[in-house]
Structures are given as C-alpha cells and as structure tokens.
Amino acid sequence: MRVAVDFEEGLKDSPRFRAALEDVEGDVTELELKLEKLVKLCIAMIDTGKAFCVANKQFMAGIRDLAQYSSKDALVETSLTKFSDSLQEMVNYHTILFDQTQRSIKAQLQTFVKEDIRKFKEAKKQFEKVSEEKENALAKNAQVPRNKLHEVEEATHILTATRKCFRHIALDYVLQINVLQSKRRSEILKSMLSFMYAHLAFFHQGYDLFSELQPYMKDLGAQLDQLAVDAAREKREMEQKHSTIQQKDFSRDETKLECNVDAASGIVMEGYLFKRASNAFKTWNRKRPDGIRRWFSIQNNQLVYQKKFKDNPTVVVEDLRLCTVKHCEDTERRFCFEVVSPTKSCILQADSEKLRQAWIQAVQASIATAYREKGDECEVEWKPAPSTGSPELGGEYREKLLKGESSLQRVQSIAGNAVCCDCGLADPRWASINLGITLCIECSGIHRSLGVHFSKVRSLTLDSWEPELLKLMCELGNVVINKVYEARNEKMGVKKPQPGSQRQEKEAYIRAKYVERRFVERGRSTSGSPGAKRLPASQEAKRHYSPEQSPGATEPLAASPQVRSNDSGFQHSTEDSREHLASTVSANTLYEPEGERQEAVAPGRSREAAAGLQLYQASYEKNLPQMAEALAHGAGVNWVNVEEDRATPLIQAVRGGSLVSCEFLLQNGANVNLRDAQGRGPLHHATVLGHTGQVCLFLKRGANQHATDEEGKDPLSVAVEAANADIVTLLRLARMNEEMRESEGLYGQPGDETYQDIFRDFSQMASNNPEKLKRFQPPDAQKP
Fold first, then answer.
1. Which parts form a coiled-coil structure per UniProt (predicted)?
2. Of 399, 462, 489, 487, whose CA–CA distance to 436 is shortest?
3. Quick one: fold of 612-773?
4. Of 3.40.50.11540, 3.90.1140.10, 1.20.1270.60, 3.40.50.970, which CATH number belongs to 7-242?
5. How far is CA 237 from CA 187, 232, 487, in A?
6. pTM > 0.70: yes or no
7. What is the fold, at CATH topology level, of the domain defined by 407-515?
8. Thinking of the domain 253-374, which architecture would CATH place it in?
9. What is the pLDDT of residues 516-552, one digit of tens each?
C-alpha cells in the first residue's frame, strides 16, 4: 500500500508532516473540484440524452403516422413499421444507457464526494482545532513563572492531555488521508468501468437488433433497384401513351369512352348524364352552370349515380329486371331518354345521339342479363367443424430458488427451456415474456417482428428482470406453451423447423403458430376445461342454431362469390362471400396437410364467451397453463362477466391472491383500470383484500389510484380505514411521487430513486418471501 502521509511524522508533527498535509489538502481540494465538475457534465449529458430520446420518440411517431398514411401500399407500410419499431428499440436502449450512466457516474462519484471527502474535511477541522489547542497549551506552559508551583503543575497537566489528544486525532487524520488516497483510485475506476460496460451492452444490443434487420434491408434494397427500373419503364410507356392519345381524334370514339365494360367490378357502362329533378316542378336546375350533372353507372344490375367528390353512390333503380327504357322526345332538350320503374321514372340527357343510343342499349342488355342470372342462384352451404375433446394440460411449478442464480439459469432450469421453443437451438438467451417461452436470437427477431400484441421479447442476459416477471417465466415454459400452440402438429403432420433451417421457414412456422394459431386444437369445447362453467341454455341454442354465431361454421372453398340465400333466409352478398373466402385462405399454406380441407372458423359469441369464462375461472384458480390455453382459443383478456358484477379476469386473479396470474394478464394486455359494477378496479380489490404485492404491482403498471367506487372511496381511503400500514405507505409514496413528477414536469419518468428502491424491495418480498407481507387479514375477505 502506498502511504501518502507517514504516521511517525504525524506523531512528531515535523515540518515534513505539515508540508505533506498541505500537499494532500491541496490535492483533495482540486480532486473535489474535478469530481464535481465531472458530475455536472454527466448530469448535463444525461439531460441532453433524455431530450434526444424525447425528440427521437416524436420522430418515431412521425414515421408511424406516415406508415398508417401509406396503408394502401403494403411495401411502404411494412418497411416503415419495421424501421420505426427497430428505432424505437434503440431509443429504449438509449434510455437504459442513460439510466446506467446516472447510476455509475453520477451516483457513485457523488457518493464519494459527499461521504469520503466530507469525512476528510471533518477530520481536517478536528486536527486543526486540536493543533491550535496544543499550541496554546505549549505557550501557556512556557509562560508560567518558576516560583508558582500550582500554576506550573496545572499547565503541565493541560499540556500532557492536549498532546495525547493531538496524537490520537493526528493519527486518525493521517489514516483518513491514506484511506482516501487509496479509495479514490478504486472509486473513480470502478465508476468508469461500469460506464464503459453500459456502453458495451448498448452497442451489443444495437448490433443484435440491426443484424436481425439487415436481411430485410438487403431485400428491400434489391426491391428498390427493381422498382427504379420498373418506374423508368412505366415512365417511357406513359409518355408514349400520352403522345398517342394526344394525336387521337376523340370525336369518332365518343361512345367507346363512355361505354366501359369491366367484368371484374361488374360495371357495364358509366359516364356523365344530366338528370331532371324529380320534384313537382320537373326542372333541369338552370341556376347551376352544369345543371344536375352526375356520374351514372350500370353495375350489379342496378342504375346508380355519384355526385362530384362523393364516393357513396345513390341508387336510381335497385333491380333492372323491373324497369324499362325508352326515348324521350316530348321534352325541349335533345338526346333525352327515360328509365321507368314501378315506383318512379327518371329522365336523363346524354351529350349526343350516339351516347343516348349507347345508354339505351346498355340498359336493355343489363335487363336481359339480370333475367338470365336469376336462374343461376343457389344456396350457400354451411358445414360445422368437428369438435374434439379438451387435452389435459398438466405441469407442476418447478422454479429453482437458489441464491446467486442468474435469470438465465433460473429460466433455463424449467423443463424444455434449455432449447429454443420454436426451432430447438440449445442455450437460448432470449425470451417472450407474455408467452413465457425461451428463444434463440434468430427466432426472437422473428417474434419481435410480429408486434408486441403477439410477443414481447426480452434478453435473459442483457436486460434487468423484475422478480414477478421472472416468476412468471418459471411458471410457464416451453413444454406448457407448446402443448397449447402445437396441439395439432402430429395430427397435421407438421415438422418444426430445425436450428439450421432457413429464416423464411422459421418465420412461416412462427406466424402460423402464434399469429394464425393454426396448430391450436380447433373446435374443442373450452367448457370442458378444468374450472370452466357450462354456458346457459340460451347461449347453447344460439351456438347450435344461429349460422351467424356458429363457432365451427365453415364454407367450402369452391363456393362461388355470388348472392345466395339458405332456407332460413340468411344471405351473403358477393363482396361478403369474397371477403370470407379471402379470410379462409391464408397467404401461408405451408402447414396445411394434403387431403385436409382448409377450415374457415367463424368465431361466434358462444365460443368467445366459453373461452373468456375459462380465462376468468383459471385466473382465480391460479392455473397459468389454462389461462394460456384460453387466450390461444380467442379469449378476450378484458372479458367481462356480466353475471358476476362485470368482473374481469384480472379482478378474479386478485381475488385468487396470485401475483403471477396478475402479471401474466397484464403482460398480455389486460386493462389495469377496468372497473366492475361497483366501480372497483383491480387496485381497489387488492387493497380491500390486503394483497400488498398486488398493490405494488398495479401501481408500477400505471393503475389510477384516484378512481373512486360507487361509495366514493379511493384505494387510499380503503387502506386507511383497514389500517393496513404497508398498503397505505405504498399508495402515499406513489401519490407523492406522482405529484412531484407533475410539479417538476417529469411526465413519463420513473421518479425518485428512494421511491423506486422501496417498490423494488416490496416486489422482491412479494415474489420471494410473500409470507412476510401476510400481516393483515381483512375481516370481510370472501371467496367470490
């Protein structure tokens, strides 16, 4: 150890000792100034970085707005959405970097200045004080007359005591100096090393993110090159067409311009016509320069017209089979013809005799076509999908609680988690927190591209994990989730991708598995699941006899997209049938087995109710596998049970007392502020039941603690009446932190560090030592 000031010299109080003290004191003063300057610069950097993140988020919002505006262009919308999501991830990484910088530089160095240098200054003051006292004692001892023995003895005693005190304080001061000189090196280097590791993690995350995005960017670049070639070719074609049309004589082709047969859209003829008013005066409205000039068209056996700049057509004749058309020569205007239906007649005027003849012939041809098509109509067939039994989803909670065990080790210790859930690659380092599965880096990139409403991806090594979230991961796992989302793999003959499979194959499989849920057991009765109730008879009747709500309703792919009606009078229009067919045929047919007809499941209210009821019951019973199964079968995470005071699955999870069930629902989009018929949300119920861990969780997830129930009580009032000290403390801290952030304009910021530390402690206790929070038993806690 390098000694800055020698202890022996301190006892001697020699000039060398005083000179060494002067050097050290000057050095510490300069060190303090340097550290304070560095802390101020760090604060300025963090503030600037936060402003940069805010501006970046606004820029991301602009990109997303542009993507929504470009919704009709799939390439632009998809690309902008991918880029904005990736850049948003980088903003999140920036935020984490600034937070770690604040902890490593600002917090550590400020602690060193405020504690260690402050102790040095206090020791210096004591040393200077006792040094002055020693000098005074020496002077007094020297001035005492020789013949005054009493004063000589008193001065000698004072000098002895002062010297003894000086030695102790001088040694303490030297010790403080040497400790400070030694500690300054470790503190400065430790904070800087932590700062550099934060940058290492930041750039590593950014590299991983853009490595996943790079193949898509390369593909997009190739598409843009081809688009540039196509645009140049189209430009040449347009210029040539423009030149050709410009030289054309339109007077000879007037009829052809108006007559525009389009078999795909069903338009037989279209063009502008003047329309005589249908009021009592039968005028042509001469006050307007263009009269009543409308864009008429014959389509789908109807005569309709549109106003300028209006998209919704007005129907003149609903069925051309019931009308006739003839020349109209008894008006003062030329080129008029009349369309007569059983209820009204409409006089129209064309721009020339040729156009009048063309319109009359088009109407007559459409009337004939309508009569022919009448005989070709047939019923739309509906075939119910077969239902299968509910597979049993078993599984015990096997979480390891070993001290010093990392998040990666704890999550991978669950059965099946040692390999990627989707491709089987060993040692996965990423996870989907709302699904509770582990993923390799390539599959995690594909999951991230699905959007957070399907999968929320987090790193098991680079990200920090809250205790309740880690416990959620340990409650589920790859085996449990694959039993739900891969229930039909063996039946369909589907082969999972391997670690060496192409990215396109993995992406197709993952989308089919989680987005389209193609491998989830279809047609199964969720009411047979454990904890689920049978639906009322009225809902069962609707499920079996309503073609609109049949949960297993399917339509054959060979059905032609025409208007058809069945015996019950249920109809499909042409457009409805086309949309239904389009929805039943997925863009990805890679995992449809040969010989199996594509099922077109029409999700009915009874099926949604059954799945919602399963989620509702499983939330109370703390059965996470059943909750995951219900969500896979289409249960709404915010499903409302109208028969039980409009309670939600999240409220049921509160009543069941499970913190991890609440976290699972919140990660899957549950509304933390949705209230029941008594006006009580999850935070109200957790407060009434005295569930401190749940109160802490809901406050962290943005619960509104100012909401009042039908009795006008907010959660804080309930906690005060129940004398629950822990919950009162949490609610008051949260309210105080909220008020402080609002007064300082720190909207969206986590708040005070003390507030965060307290909530972190409560979260750790609720997840790892819940028995410590069972100090309050509400007298009115009843099972629902």
1. 113-140, 217-248
2. 399
3. 1.25.40
4. 1.20.1270.60
5. 72, 9, 54
6. no
7. Annexin V; domain 1 (1.10.220)
8. Roll (2.30)
9. 898 888 765 444 443 334 333 333 323 332 333 333 3
